[in-house]
Amino acid sequence: SALRLVRILRLSRVARVAKVLRALPDLMILLKGLLAAVRSVFFTFCLLLLVIYIFAIAIKQLSDETYMGSKYFNGVPKSMYTLFVRGALLDNVSMLVEEVFNESPIVAGLLMLFILAASVTIMNMLVGVLCQVVTTVAAVEKEEMTVGIFESKLRDVAQRLDQNQDGTISKEEFCLILHDPAAAKALQAVGVDPVGLIDYADCIFETEDGSADKDLS
Hints:
This protein has helices at 2-23, 25-36, 38-62, 67-72, 76-88, 93-103, 105-161, 171-174, 181-189, 194-199, 201-204. By secondary structure, the protein is an all-alpha fold.
């Protein structure tokens, strides 16, 4: 039916988007970072909203019966809008500060204090939170990719080292890892020294009672 055809087309679009995300790991890392930072971003905006509300009430009270008060701070909602757009986002803020200062230096000083608190501090803190989260997510994703690649390579190496094809690796077979360039490169890629690993072969293959060497499966 036509409805089933529409559903198939939607699923194909979703699969196409998933394929694009897999082909662009950096984009995937950014999306995961944004999702991980949602909670921190939400509370940062809550803090910004609280600061805007407090300053809006104070500036509204101090700018009553003034021209700039009726123009920019006519009521708490209008004051919050002005502080957010002009003070936090710095949209033509110099003209606002100049007009306010001409009528009330006290309100202008309070407005400058708000700009320092909201735009310079809180907004930059928001950028810092996003950068930190994305950096952390990128590090975790890179580590997972490295481990996955190493696991795949090491599985291939283990199959080559398993000379008797019994599904396990004996101590003698393990010591042959130095003679396999692919195995040595796979270990070095994740920061493992192959020579040092061979030195610990006795500990790796030692049984609990120390009576004989065990095989690794």
